[in-house]
From TrEMBL:
Chain positions recorded as substrate binding sites: 160-162, 193, 288, 363
Function: Catalyzes the deamination of various vicinal amino-alcohols to oxo compounds. Allows this organism to utilize ethanolamine as the sole source of nitrogen and carbon in the presence of vitamin B12.
Class of this enzyme: lyase
Binding site residues for adenosylcob(III)alamin: 194, 246, 296, 402
A Pfam family hit: EutB
Cofactor binding comment, as recorded: Binds between the large and small subunits.
Record lineage: Bacteria, Pseudomonadati, Pseudomonadota, Alphaproteobacteria, Acetobacterales
InterPro entries assigned to the protein according to its UniProt record, in alphabetical order: Aldolase_TIM (IPR013785), EutB (IPR010628), EutB_dom_2_sf (IPR044939), EutB_N_sf (IPR044941)
Localization: Bacterial microcompartment
Name this protein carries in UniProt: Ethanolamine ammonia-lyase large subunit
GO-annotated molecular function: cobalamin binding; ethanolamine ammonia-lyase activity
An example Gene Ontology biological process: amino acid metabolic process
Keyword Lyase applies: yes
Annotated family: Belongs to the EutB family.
Organism of origin: Roseomonas acroporae
Length: 465
């Protein structure tokens, strides 16, 4: 079924729903690389007019990726909640945008609606929104999860402490963990990307991180971001696995490229739940996504990169994760060319994830060959915090020395908390107070070299390895 719109006397035609969504997307290098982008700015605006007039129900009738050939499409359609969808079922995409920005779309209404929305609906309405619209709606969405700490509560901003090391040296990782804890980071997770992706190495890192957590009774969770099958193997060997990690995408073929399927994820979730390691909740999965993943695997089925990214959140949603984050600028300028595109993508991903009921965070980042810099990341981290982002990722000095890209620093998180008044997860905030690392106003103390607070943590860094 084709779509068309006349703009300024010129008739613009779009062959099918995939073409319409792609043409309506803000400009980005990945869609241009795939040959999906609008042919002109006039065509982009015409596509948005046509999209605004499209009934939301159309997304239930016209699958972008064939049902018979894709388990993600089957997951989306087979789990769709018609009763939850009913309050907005009569709306067009444009009408849905207006409703989302209205007072009627409060936190309770949005939470009730989430099971009735498909990723394609969320992606479509985002294409009609300015950045401020994405922020305003996402801020109203609350997705709260818990394991040892509670993530996503109003007025809170959690952090993943990412202490990566190019050789997985325990002392180097320990120093980075200490740096982050002393800056109040780590309440979402202390999560290491291993340089050597082997089961014995993963177990060694997990045991080191868990020993730290237990020694200081830190109410957080640890994770080695290895492949899900490695996590299964580590659990079989008795390793202290808190969270199971996996990168996921929005099509079956793209997930196959990651070496994963829905069945494997179900097996891993069940195994992690059986360990019963959580104290505040039972959300045991951690997923990462990113625009461009399906295209880079040539598994996008002609769907624009933002829409196929939103489909990944349907995969995430099915497994009740503790954490989901988009590594927004990590894949490179072939997919998000510059700071403007990275900022827009980060806000889109956060909006779509939250609207679908996913506990979204973000790795505010860029690669060194992208047309972006730290000022762009300052804009995005601030906008996401205003938008109610569940967590952000922070690394020592904002420079990941193992993965070779630029992210946020622990001090960036301190700036956001001080400037915007957001606080750590409540359990972690109480721990900081018990460790006497907060002042009378709840702010992180500047510790002297000989302070007792620092002395409590230094033995771990000295003994690691």
């Amino acid at each position: 079924m084709g779509y068309a719109w006349t703009l300024g006397g010129e008739r613009h035609r779009f062959d099918d729903l995939r073409a319409l969504l792609a043409a309506a997307s803000p400009r980005r290098s990945g869609d241009e690389l795939a040959g999906l982008a609008a042919a002109s700015e006039a065509a982009r605006i015409a596509a948005r007019y046509a999209l605004a007039d499209l009934p939301l129900r159309r997304f239930l009738d016209e699958a972008l990726v064939p049902y018979e050939a894709d388990e993600v499409t089957r997951l989306i359609l087979d789990t769709h909640d018609a009763a939850a969808f009913a309050p907005v079922a009569h709306l067009t995409v444009g009408g849905f945008r207006d409703w989302l920005l209205s007072y009627d779309a409060d936190a309770a209404a949005l939470a009730a609606l989430a099971p009735g929305l498909t990723p394609e609906m969320a992606a479509a309405v985002s294409k009609l929104m300015r950045n401020q619209d994405l922020i305003a709606v996402a801020r109203k969405c609350r997705v709260v999860t818990a394991f040892r700490s509670t993530i996503g509560l109003p007025g809170r901003l959690a952090t993943r402490l990412q202490p990566n090391h190019p050789s997985d040296d325990p002392r180097g990782i320990a120093a980075a963990v200490l740096d982050g804890l002393l800056c109040g980071s780590g309440d979402a997770v202390i999560g290491v990307n291993p340089a050597t992706d082997s089961v014995p190495n993963g177990i060694a890192l997990l045991e080191m991180l868990d020993a730290l957590r237990a020694q200081y009774d830190i109410p957080t969770q640890t994770c080695v971001l290895t492949h899900v099958t490695n996590s299964l193997a580590m659990m079989e060997r008795g390793a202290p696995v808190d969270l199971v990690f996996q990168s996921v995408a929005g099509t079956e073929a793209a997930n196959a490229g990651f070496g994963v399927s829905l069945a494997v994820l179900r097996e891993a979730e069940a195994a992690a739940l059986s360990l019963g390691r959580g104290t505040a909740g039972r959300n045991v999965m951690y997923f990462e996504t990113g625009q461009g993943a399906a295209l880079s695997a040539e598994a996008h089925h002609g769907v624009d990169q933002q829409t196929v990214e939103a489909r990944a959140y349907a995969v995430c949603r099915a497994f009740r994760p503790l954490l989901v984050n988009t590594v927004v600028g990590f894949i490179g300028p072939e997919y998000l060319y510059d700071g403007k595109q990275i900022i827009r993508a980060g806000l889109e991903d956060h909006f779509c994830g939250k609207l679908l009921g996913v506990p979204m965070g973000c790795d505010v980042c860029y690669t060194n060959h992208a047309e972006a810099d730290g000022d762009d990341m300052d804009v995005l981290m601030t906008a996401l915090t205003v938008a109610g982002c569940n967590f952000l990722i922070a690394v020592p000095g904002a420079d990941d020395v193992m993965l070779g890209y630029q992210s946020l620093s622990f001090h960036d998180i301190l700036t956001l908390r001080a400037t915007l008044g957001v606080r750590p997860a409540p359990e972690f905030e109480s721990w900081l107070a018990r460790m006497e690392m907060l002042d009378a106003r709840g702010r992180l103390r500047e510790l002297a070299p000989q302070s007792p607070q620092l002395a409590r943590l230094l033995p771990y860094a000295a003994d690691a390895g």
